[in-house]
Design goal:
- The chain is of the alpha+beta class.
- The chain has two helices and seven strands; from the N terminus they run αββββββαβ.
- It has a four-stranded antiparallel β-sheet. It has a three-stranded mixed β-sheet with strand order 4-1-7.
Length: 162
Amino acid sequence: MKHTCLFSVIVWVILCLSSCKTNYIVQPLPVEQRVDPTIVRGEEKKMVTRDNPGSTALERTIIRWNFDSSPQGARVYWRVVSSIPDIVKNTNELYLAPTPYEETRSFNILGLTYENSRDVIIEVKVKKAGYMDQVKRFNVRQAIDQQEISSFFELVKNDVSE
C-alpha cells in the first residue's frame, strides 16, 4: 500500500512538472553585474601606479614569500611575466636572497589590478653553482587569494663532462 501511494505521488509530480510551460533556463548575469566576492568592493579596476603609491588595496595586500632548497644556499631570483605587456610590464630578474628565504612583502607591480591579476605570473628562479637552474611560476591572482608564494626546490647536480 505504501509503495503504491508513493509511486502515485511520484507519477503525479512528474506529470505536473512535464506539463508546466514555464522555461526555467537560468540566464547568466551581464558582465557589469557579476561580482567577485574575493575582490574588495570598488577595487576591481584600481591600478597600481607611481603617481599615487599605496592608494590601492592591492598594494597593501601582504604576501608571504617562502622558498627553500636542498642543498640550501641557492640564490633566489624573481621577475614579472605578463601576458598583457602593454598594461603590466615584464621585468628583469631581481635577486632576493639565498635559501632558505622567508619574507612578507606587498605586490608593487605597476599596472596591476584585481581584474588583470589573472594574466600576470611571478617567475621564481633558483641558482646554485654546480646545480641546474630551476624555475617555477606562480599566478598572481592565486597568490593574492592564498596570500602566499612558496615552494621547495630539490636541486639536481649539473653533470657536464668537459
